[in-house]
Each structure stands twice: as structure tokens, then as C-alpha cells.
Automatic annotation (TrEMBL), chain B:
The keyword rRNA processing does not apply. This is sn-glycerol-3-phosphate transport system permease protein UgpE. Coiled coil: none annotated. Its main location: membrane. It is found in: Cell inner membrane; Cell membrane. InterPro entries: MetI-like (IPR000515), MetI-like_sf (IPR035906). Keywords: Cell inner membrane, Cell membrane, Membrane, Transmembrane, Transmembrane helix, Transport. The gene is ugpE. Pfam families: BPD_transp_1. CDD domains: TM_PBP2.
Amino acid sequence: MACTKMSLAEIENSGGPSGPPKQELPVRVRKQLTDTQAAWFLLTPLLLFFVISVVYPVIETIRLSFFDIRGLAPERFDGWGNYVKLFSDPNFLSSLKVTFIWAISATFFSVSIGWGLAMMCSLNPRKTLIFRVMIFAAYGVSEAVSGFMWLGIYRPDYGLLNGILEGVGLSGWTQPWLGNPSTALGAVVIAYVWTQVGLPLMTCFASIQSIPKNLFEAAYIDGAKSGSVMRYIIAPLSLPGVRVAIFINLLNSLKAFDLIFILTGGGPVRSTETVGFFMYRESMLNFKLGYGAASTVILLIAVLVVSIPLIIKRTGDAK
Amino acid sequence: MIGRTPRWIVPIVGLIAMIWIVPIIGLLVTSIRPISEIILGWWSIQEFTLTLDAWILVWDKYPLAYAFWISCKIAIISTIIPMLLAPAAAYAFHFLKFRFRRLILILIINAFVLPNQVVIIPLFRLWRDLGMIDNIWSVIIPFAGLSFAWAVFLVKNYLEDFPYELIEAAQVDACGPLARFFYIVLPNSLTPIAAVGILQFMWTWNGLLLPVVFLRDELPLPALLARIQGVYDRNWDQVAVAAIITTIVPLMVFIIFQRFFTAGAQTKSGSKE
């Protein structure tokens, strides 16, 4: 940042509208930028990026969703046509169902496992630090890489899961976990939960750490067992962290794409195809851009509905 | 810290953590055993040989070094942009008065909820018309643009506790609004800027959707990994090496700086404890 090296005078003179030099003044009066000028100077580069990659695409996606566009052919206005088609397309309806199951189950399991672990860890923060980092590390692994790891577990021929089942004498249960439409979604959700638990673990843990310590002292003096401390102090008072975790996990799982792309590519027979993935298939593989755009608008509406409390909170915070 | 700990806590959490890293161990073991043994399962112990063959061969077989270089370029540039621009914007929003301030702020910080999928189709058409498909900037620009939602929020949240007296003192000493930013606010908000950098680096390094859609040959590591997995062959050991190389950089960053994440995740979501 070269600016920090500049002198004060240079900075003030560089951006400001400099009037004619007033030689007659004994002390040179420096012209300062007004707040408005400075604000726009600082904001413009960011706004450029923001408009190109957020404002324009959102508006354009909504516009395109009313057009029939196939590949490079000229676009044709189609009114609500795409939406009518979407809601009579069994593949889209199934992707809505998959997204719903996916988001609810992934959020439920990640947050409850993460919260439970956070409560246990908070009883002995020092000795469990290394374990927290181990579990949290999965969140740092790229989803593409986690996908590869879980392929090694689910593979029908020499995957770990089938290996274990055979080892304990349950050979009848072995199956191609990702190739069977009835188990594929569950298998991908488990892999996804594996990557996500670190986040609720950390937010809930931080939330527990901020509980005033004298509450615990009081409880122990009154003879409370650690079970009831967990039940009556830690659990209710860590709810803010839990709420944050639910929001973030729900939003993330609605957008999920990477892991599904690697593990199943939406298959078998579209049993793991979420709306986010449906959009990719229709617009990038089948080149029906307008149709894909309409499906993203539905996804956007779902995301907005879920995040209304968050949006209200953030809007209120924006003082 | 919290007092009487039941004894079962540490072993139980330890056991869960051990189960948790099984996939990671599987990946490491797969990369150092010959393919003939992996076929029986990476955990099998009838024969156990260690070999670094895959680690040596993989560089010729896949353009791994090139993808690593692309990943570095994309992640570093799209990390630096928000690290520079987000604090400037947060300062403007927090300490300066101007028209539309609240409207722009609300628009930016609420863009946090936007799924990447929403921006894909229009940007794809735009990049295609501009001839920018397969240009790393086609990925960097949306990576940066989408990051401001939480980056600005994170820095601005930090500025809420910034001592206003410092600003006033500088004002009395005839510092203009820009000088107040560069001399007073910027040097004192390195903590949230570092948090922005770390989170953004991880997300851009790991991102798959945007590179898969916008890039063809200039593939960063996760996209390359996705592609070589799709090609059906049995070089599991070599793909494992590629996977380890893909994840080693963000994982290191992640473990070294994991303390920042708690703060980051909390502020990002708007909870103020």
C-alpha cells in the first residue's frame, strides 16, 4: 500500500478538488475532502466488483428466467413458460424434494453432533483441544477432496464400508452405496455432515465459553452433577451459538454442489440431484439457460425465505 | 475451566475424533501403497509395502504443478482484493456520512445469503461474449465480488468497538477522511483483515463450482481433481496424491490459524455476544 508512505499533505492533495493556490494567505490552508468524496473514493472499486458479480447477475438471472434460451440461439420471451414447465417437470420436483431432505437432514445432523461435541468438550477444554482440531480439520478439507476420500469408503468392490460389513459378518448388507438410488442420498448426506460438523462445533463451543463462569461455580456449590450442569446451564445458554450454526449450515446446504458433483454427479437416476445441481445440468450440460435460470430463481426464493430472520437482523445492525 | 469433569468425556470425544479422521488417514495410506495392495482395500494388511512411486509418477501423468500454480494465482489475487477493499468500505460505512449509505450497506451485507448458482448463468453469458472463458479473471471477479458481503460485515463489526476518540483526535489535528483511514483505522484493524484473508483464501482455494463452469484448461486443483476422477482408471494412488496436494495448503492455513475462525464465523453471522 503505497499510500501509507505518502505524507499527509500528499494524500489530501491527491484526491481532492484543488482550487487555485491561494498565495496571499500566510499559512497554506489545505483543502480537505468532504466525507462524501472520500466515501465514494473508498467505495468505488468495491462497488465495481459488486455490481459486476452480484447486482447485474441477480437482475439478469431473473430476466433470463422469463426467456426461452437454448445454446446460442436468439432468446425468445416466454412469459411464465419456464416456471410452468419447471413445476410439471418430474426431475425438478424430485430435485426440490431432494434439496429439502438434504438441507434438513444435513443441518440437523451437523448441528446436533457439533453441539453435543461442543458441550462435552467444554467440560474439559484443555484436554479436548487436539480432538476439536481433528474434527474441525475436516471442515478445512476441500469438498472435492472429501468427495474422493468418501469414494474410497463407499466403493462397492474394495471400499472400507463394505470391508467392515464383511469383516463383522454382515456380508448381506454390502452394496454399491452410491450406485443404489435408495442409499445414495443418505451416503452423500453422511459425507457432507462429516465435512460440516466442525463449524457448529466451533460456534457452539465459543458460545459456551462466553457463559459467565460464576454460574458454574454456583451450580457446583449447590451440588449439581455435570449432567445437570449440561442440561440446565450449558444447553440453554449456548442457544445463540446453536442458532447461528443452524442458519449457516442451512444456507450452506441449500447451495451445496461440490460434494454431489464429485460423489454421484446427481445420479443414480437423479436421486441425489439438488436444485443447485439441477441448474448446473440444465444450463451447463443441456444449454437451456433460461430454464436453468428459472430454477435458480426458485432456489433464490428458498434461500431468502430461510434467511429472513438473518436478513432482518443484519439490516437492523446496519446503522 | 468449568470444574469437575466426568472421566468419560475425554475418551469419548477422543474416540469420535479418531473415527472422524479415518477418511483422511485412508487418503494418506492410499497414496503410499502400491496399487496392487490398494485393490484389496487400503486398510488390508496381508501384505504391507510402502512406496513413493505415486508421489513421483503423478507429476508426469497429470498437470499437477500447473494446476497448483493456477490455484495459487486465483486464491491469492481473490484474497488480496477483499483484504484491500473491504476495510476501506467498512470505514466509509462506519465513520463517514454520505447519501445512500444505509441502502448500499444493506444491499452489500445481505448478499451473504446469495447462492453461487444465482450468478453463474449471466456471468457465463457475459464472459462468453467478452471472450473471457478460461481466463482466471472470470473466476477471480465473482470470488471477490461475492466475498464483500461477509468481509465488509466482519470488518465493520470490528469497527463498532473502535475508540472514536482516536478519530476525533486525528480530526482535530487536521487529518482528512482519507488520512484518518490510512493512518488511524487501517493500521489498527489488522485482526479482522487477517480473518478476512484466511477465510477467503480457504474458500477460493477450495471452490469448485465457478472454476468448473468458467474454466476449461486453466484448471485449479479441485477442478483438476474432479476431472481426473471422472476419467475411469485405477490410478487410485496417484489421484490420492493429487487430492493431498489439493488440500494441504488450505489445511495448513486452517490448522495454523484455527483460532481466527471462531471469531470469523461468529461475526460473519451477526451474533454479538
